[in-house]
């Protein structure tokens, strides 16, 4: 028998036939994708199996029941998404409202898989490999699907020193130029009006790294971009912000460190220290993963050759 905590009860039976689907097809999808059992008894559902998977299924069912109760319709595809972030996905693609994002290389596919399976993921490699873009795509999909409540995008500002007080304008005017690439990725995933609404409501936050101090980031997908410009102290501060039911993606290019001469980057130190820690995924991109434009790949290779090394 399932534990009492795995019983989901609904207030009104009239929405349940549509929620469950014809021949309970929606429940069957969740059972298969999350490897759980669901038994309907009156206005209750009894869920048994892995606790986290049961909670995920309950969240999907409750969200769609609330849609029906408010007079909105639901799509059968909503119940296909149970496997997308359960650790059992194939890493093949992720759907956002504006487009479907698919990996274009083996490393990108592996990166998607790591983002699905791990609470903390490092994406390391040269410009143009899709490190940040793919992380934002995954984060946006998880936000839109209700798997997290917030999307937080961050990067070190002003060459990692974050000396914002010396710049003209209010705080948003000061930090926006350094965060613009993150906004650009967001606008690729969602309509501009939707991004604006979520920024206003706090569901999406784009902020410099300094704004992360003293916070615990729960129920969020958090992305730290340009992480090679973090000091070891900043990196440790950021990593310890991870809260309950949250994911982190940390991206950076070790060959593009803008820290003052003699300062140590916290990125590779963190990668080395956490190389064998459970729940941490690592993807190292190479020049072969550059997907922006063929000329960008040739430029990156030319610089690497001039420096006497190939990025790896």
Q: Count of helical segments?
A: 10
Which percent bin holds the helix content? Answer: 25-40%
- Tell me the quaternary state: single chain
Order of helices and strands: EHHEEHEEHEHEHHEEHEHEH
Please report which band the strand proportion falls in: under 5%, 5-15%, 15-25%, 25-35%, 35-45% or over 45%: 15-25%
Count of DSSP E strands?
Answer: 11
Give a short account of the largest sheet: 6 strands, parallel
Widest sheet: strand order? 8-7-9-10-6-11
Cα-to-Cα separation, first versus last residue: 52 Å
Let me know the average pLDDT.
Answer: 82
Low-confidence stretches: 83-90, 158-172
Structural category is alpha/beta
Cα gyration radius (Å):
21 Å
Q: Give the overall form.
A: elongated
Topology, element by element:
Elements: E1 7-9, H1 16-20, H2 25-34, E2 37-41, E3 44-48, H3 51-69, E4 94-95, E5 100-101, H4 106-117, E6 120-124, H5 131-144, E7 150-155, H6 171-189, H7 192-201, E8 204-208, E9 220-224, H8 232-239, E10 247-252, H9 266-273, E11 280-284, H10 294-306
Parallel strand pairs: 6-10, 6-11, 7-8, 7-9, 9-10
Antiparallel strand pairs: 1-3, 2-3, 4-5
Helix pairs in contact: 4-5, 5-6, 8-9
């Amino acid at each position: 028998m399932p534990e009492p905590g795995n019983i989901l009860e609904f207030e009104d039976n009239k929405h349940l036939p549509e929620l469950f689907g014809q021949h309970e097809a929606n429940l069957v999808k969740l059972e298969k994708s999350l490897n759980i059992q669901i038994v309907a008894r009156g206005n209750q559902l009894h869920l048994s199996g892995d606790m986290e998977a049961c909670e995920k299924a309950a969240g999907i069912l409750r969200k769609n029941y609330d849609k029906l109760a408010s007079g909105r319709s639901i799509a059968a595809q909503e119940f296909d998404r149970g496997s997308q972030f359960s650790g059992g996905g194939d890493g093949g693609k992720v759907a956002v409202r504006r487009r479907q994002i698919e990996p274009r290389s083996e490393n990108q596919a592996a990166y998607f898989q790591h983002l699905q399976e791990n609470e903390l993921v490092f994406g390391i490699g040269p410009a143009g490999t899709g490190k940040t873009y793919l992380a934002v795509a995954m984060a946006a999909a998880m936000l839109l699907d209700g798997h997290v409540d917030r999307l937080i995008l961050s990067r070190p500002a002003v060459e990692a020193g974050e000396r914002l007080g010396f710049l003209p304008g209010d705080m948003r005017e000061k930090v926006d130029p350094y965060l613009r690439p993150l906004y650009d990725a967001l606008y690729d995933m969602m309509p501009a009006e939707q991004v604006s609404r979520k920024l206003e409501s706090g569901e999406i936050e784009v902020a410099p790294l300094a704004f992360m101090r003293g916070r615990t980031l729960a129920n969020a997908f958090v992305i730290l971009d340009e992480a090679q410009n973090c000091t070891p102290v900043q990196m440790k501060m950021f990593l310890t912000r991870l809260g309950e039911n949250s994911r982190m993606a940390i991206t950076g290019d070790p060959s593009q460190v803008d820290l003052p001469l003699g300062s140590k980057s916290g990125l590779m130190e963190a990668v080395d220290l956490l190389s064998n820690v459970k729940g941490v995924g690592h993807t190292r991109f190479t020049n072969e993963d550059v997907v922006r434009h063929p000329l960008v790949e040739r430029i990156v290779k030319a610089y690497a050759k001039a420096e006497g090394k190939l990025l790896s």
